[in-house]
Specification:
By secondary structure, the chain is of the alpha+beta class. The protein is built from 11 helices and 32 strands. Helix 2 crosses helix 3. GO terms for molecular function: hydrolase activity.
Length: 664
């Protein structure tokens, strides 16, 4: 094995078959040095359901050829039942999925063009299963890079944040309803493509129906949650996420809990790889990854294990931008651990504002549409998805403002809110936002947290509230790196609802705050970067011909007759043709979230995805729809798939279900 990174000529395989022990053939796209048959190289596995032929082509083109030219075989595998791989997928992160990955890793290590060492890398789903597979400890797996992932599938994914049902549970379920219902490419799988497609359609699960059957943190969620046993991960781990994403908490959790070499980076980015993410500044992720792989897959002594444990970007506080291309700020570096060692300043919520301890008698009875400027749970499409000006949401909440800060404050870590409160109902929620109020009155969300108050002691065994009883409550807001300038103010905004981020409790509630304080982790303010990353680099972008331009819509509507408030979202990825092999692909995602400010049982979510694929005279289209509403006792779901071949209906499946609410 060559241990230098001199550029090598590479070859690409569009469809390398990996046959598992049960006979299922997985399809892999491979980039590797052309001479790897005589000079073997380590393998880097990215293992996803997101369709290597069309779904991840844009990022694959930037990433995998670049790494292959530097002496690695990059293997992009469609998991069972997705893309061009055989079989069916029954759920996310099943034991079958993880066992398949372990088989793939052993298969890769045994190939004559592989040196015998394997790394695993991925963002989101691929970041999740990188951690989960590492916990299974396959011997050839020597290191992982996990991006935008989680250690806790229940409370830190798209399901039940703070025990509150996230509406992303339906939104992401609609996404997978679309992704997994698409056909394999006939050009790769041959005449069997239609039967493969029909097989997966007949077996297609509607995932929100599964997820809602587990409203508490039971064994279903413990599976795949590596926080159950951090010690199970022995492989060196590089963890990365961004403040514009929903998985920023994972990075410090891994840094502080893994008993192996682990390094963490939190930047300003949304849910994208940081060599092409927004907002900037971008970093040379590929160079960082190369050094990681060189050290652990090739044994090159380059000192990565001695670098700071945690590097984070502290964003300068600015007026909110729902789509941000660049955030000013600076990079900080913590040599040991993440942020738990940083000093904390405590501010109290009082009748006169946010500051020294004082009396507090506040009632929180929020109109149910409070939260319309929350932004996406995790910004993904790069449209107007980041939190907007918070003033409208602040006006619907109970707020506590500080005096103008005498000096700038760098908040780095997870603020903690501590409350003594009572509720007038047995079920209730609370949402707490920490905002930055600029001199002109603009309000920017710094970070936030939510809690289902029946989960105050346990996500596994929630307990109803006793109306009128005072409870001591504490929970963390999300990790952040944020600078508030001198002369600006802090605001804590408290609400009893947060729509459309979380599904409302079955009754509108009134919370009474008796005492409250927030602990703000702080880091001494500085000016210069404490760490300098190389600039972003990448291979040439995916070569496509645009057939329909991409676009994004996000608007709020108020029905003056009914009083209902609607958030309408349309994300059109555009329609493109791959110029190298002629495949056409594109999607349109539509979401509508409806609620009446006074009625929690008016809440409704409606999703509709259109997916187009094909080539030449063949045009394939899937229309997937889903809808969710609730009464006091049940969640109600309606879902449907309609599949068309050249505009002729080939398959249709509609279903309805109801699932009893369990303090959600």
């Amino acid at each position: 094995m060559t241990t230098t990174n001199a550029l090598r000529e590479i070859e690409e395989l569009a469809d390398m078959g990996i046959t598992l022990s049960d006979g299922t053939r997985l399809s892999a796209r491979v980039w590797r040095p052309a001479d790897s048959g005589t000079d073997p190289v380590p393998a880097i596995l990215e293992y996803l359901p997101y369709r290597k032929r069309d779904g991840t082509c844009a990022r694959d083109a930037l990433t995998h050829p670049w790494m292959a030219k530097r002496g690695y075989a990059c293997i992009r595998v469609d998991i069972r039942g997705n893309g061009d791989s055989q079989g069916v997928m029954e759920d996310e992160y099943t034991q079958q999925e993880l066992d398949d990955a372990v088989e793939v890793i052993h298969w890769l290590a045994e190939q004559p063009w592989c040196s015998g060492t394997v790394g695993m890398m991925g963002i989101s789903w691929g970041g999740f299963n990188s951690l989960q597979v590492a916990a299974m400890q396959p011997d050839p797996l020597k290191a992982i890079i996990t991006l935008c992932s989680t250690v806790d599938r229940y409370a830190e994914d798209i399901h039940f944040k703070g025990g509150c049902l996230l509406n992303e549970n339906l939104g992401w379920g609609a996404t997978m309803w679309c992704f997994s219902s698409r056909a394999p490419d006939p050009a790769l799988v041959g005449e069997a493509w239609r039967e493969m497609w029909l097989e997966r359609l007949r077996a297609q699960p509607f995932l929100p129906e599964i997820w809602l059957q587990h409203q508490t943190r039971d064994a279903y969620w413990q599976h795949g949650s590596i926080c159950e046993d951090f010690s199970s991960i022995k492989t060196p781990t590089l963890a990365i996420s961004g403040w514009g994403d929903s998985y920023m908490n994972t990075v410090p959790q891994l840094v502080d809990n893994l008993d192996t070499v682990v390094k963490g980076i939190n930047g300003p980015w949304i849910h994208k790889y940081p060599h092409f993410a927004i907002p900037g500044p971008r970093i040379g992720f590929l160079q960082e990854a190369l050094r990681w792989w060189d050290r652990w897959l090739k044994g090159i002594e380059n000192g990565v294990e001695d670098e700071p444990d945690y590097r984070a970007y502290v964003m300068d506080g600015i007026a909110p931008e729902t789509k941000s291309l660049y955030r000013p700020g600076r990079w900080i570096a913590e040599q040991t651990g993440s942020t738990r060692h940083l000093p904390v300043e405590t501010l109290h919520l009082t009748d006169t504002g946010l500051g020294p301890k004082g009396s507090l008698t506040a009632q929180v009875r929020t109109p149910l549409h409070a939260g319309m400027d929350c932004g996406e749970y995790g910004s993904f499409f790069a449209g107007p998805e980041l939190p907007g000006d918070q003033r409208l949401d602040d006006a619907l909440s109970v707020t506590f403002d500080s005096a103008p800060l005498p000096q700038r404050m760098d908040i780095v870590g997870a603020p903690r809110i501590r409350l003594r409160l009572s509720s007038d109902k047995p079920q209730a929620q609370i949402a707490v936002r920490l905002n930055h109020v600029l001199p002109d009155g603009t309000s920017a969300r710094i970070t936030y947290g939510v809690l289902n108050l029946t989960h105050r002691d346990s996500h596994a065994a929630p307990q109803a509230l006793e109306p009128g009883r005072i409870y001591d409550i504490a929970f963390d807001l999300d990790h952040i790196g944020y600078r508030v300038h001198a002369g600006h103010r802090l605001r804590v905004a408290v609400s009893s609802s947060y729509w459309p981020m979380i599904w409302p409790s079955p009754e509108r509630t009134c919370l009474t705050l008796h005492e409250a304080a927030i602990d703000l982790p702080q880091r001494p303010a500085g000016e210069a970067d404490e760490w300098v990353f190389p600039p972003e680099d990448a291979d040439p972008p995916w070569d496509t011909r645009t057939l329909r331009e991409a676009s994004n819509i996000r608007r709020t509507e108020i029905d003056k007759a009914s009083g209902e408030v609607r958030l309408i979202i349309v994300d059109d990825s555009g329609l493109v043709e791959d110029t190298s092999h002629g495949a056409v692909s594109g999607t349109i995602a539509r979401e509508t979230w409806v609620i009446h400010p006074d009625d929690p049982l008016s809440a409704r979510g409606i999703c509709h995805w259109t997916s187009e694929t094909g080539r030449g005279d063949l045009r394939l289209r899937t229309e997937t729809t889903c809808e969710m509403w609730s009464d006091a006792e049940y969640f109600h779901l309606k879902s449907g798939i309609s599949v068309f071949e050249n505009d002729t209906l080939l398959y249709q499946n509609d279903k309805v279900s109801r699932i009893r609410r369990d303090m959600a």
